[in-house]
Design brief:
- It is a single chain.
- The protein has about 280 residues and is of the alpha/beta class.
- The protein has a domain at about 5-165 and about 195-215 and about 270-275: Rossmann fold, CATH 3.40.50.150.
- Helix content is about 40%, strand content about 20%.
- The chain has helices spanning about 15-20, 30-35, 35-40, 50-60, 75-80, 95-105, 140-150, 170-195, 200-205, 220-230, 240-255; strands at about 65-70, 85-90, 110-115, 125-135, 150-165, 210-220, 265-275.
- A 7-stranded mixed β-sheet has the order 3-2-1-4-5-7-6.
């Protein structure tokens, strides 16, 4: 029997186009390995309301077993552990995973492993929840769905999570217009084309995920803002000619928008939660 029709299947595979642009440089894991320090220094965490929603909506037991896919340096993983849940950080970049281990390795319930959404190194039916924060755009949706259904318990769910930059904030607009636009190149264009999340439907299949959102914010000093910019996958290396020009543009923005030695960036944290439909 064929799988039920899903309107998202008619969409162009913007995810494949995005991932393909990184293959000549060794793929995404190679790109993010070089950006680990900037990631640690600048990326925002997640609001407590998110973890409260997960606890309530998933009815997670105290010792819930969770895999955080594309965990990076552990920004979401740390919040999961703080609730008393056991969280395994699954991350393909060795450098990112090492940073996560250094940050969280001493915490109860923590573990990590090399892997991806399409190859999760955990036993069948072993997980109460799978999370993926700022990572879904790197997934191949159908392969990820099959793999996650393999490792989830019968009642297990998947939480897709984003910290979306609030584009109507003056600082965010300036970053887009004066830094990310001029220096992000083709790879930024491919990421923007994929940000409508059109492949979410292909991932969940006939299941419609539930959705929540909360305001969030993050303060950065001058070095932090520069690190935030260079943590983006599409930005040039800081030591390149383009990178030095981008850094000068970022520093000028900091001088324009800073108050009390910091800038405040506003985000909307988005949660899509559900259990993907099984293949027919």
């Amino acid at each position: 029997m064929n799988e039920p029709e899903n309107p998202s299947k008619a969409r162009p595979d913007t995810g494949a186009a995005l991932r393909g642009l990184y293959e000549p440089q060794g793929g995404v894991r190679a790109i993010f390995g070089a950006k680990t320090a900037d990631y640690v220094a600048s990326r925002p965490d997640y609001p407590q309301a998110l973890f409260e929603a997960l606890a309530h909506e998933c009815a997670l037991p105290t010792q819930a077993q969770i895999a955080d896919i594309g965990a990076g340096t552990g920004l979401l993983t740390q919040g999961l552990l703080a609730r008393g849940w056991a969280a395994c950080a699954i991350e393909p970049s060795a450098e990112m995973r090492a940073a996560c281990d250094a940050q969280l390795g001493a915490l109860p319930g923590y573990s990590s492993a090399a892997g991806s959404a399409e190859a999760i190194p955990l036993p069948d039916a072993s997980l109460d929840l799978i999370t993926a924060a700022q990572a879904f755009h790197w997934f191949e949706p159908r392969a990820a769905r099959a793999e996650m259904l393999r490792v989830l318990k019968p009642s297990g769910q998947v939480a897709l999570i984003w910290n979306d930059r609030q584009s109507d904030q003056a600082l965010q607009r300036a970053l887009n217009d004066e830094v990310f636009g001029p220096f992000g190149g083709e790879r930024r264009g491919a990421l923007l084309a994929h940000e409508d999340r059109g492949q979410v439907g292909a991932f969940f299949g006939s299941t419609a995920p539930r959705q929540w959102s909360w305001p969030h914010q993050h303060a950065l000093d001058a070095a932090g803002l520069r690190s935030l910019v260079f943590s983006r996958s599409y930005m040039p290396r800081p030591d390149s000619e383009a990178g030095r020009a981008a850094a000068a543009a970022v520093d000028a923005l900091f001088q324009r928008f800073a108050s009390g030695g910091e800038v405040l960036l506003h985000y909307t944290t988005v949660l899509m939660l559900g259990r993907p439909a099984a293949y027919a």
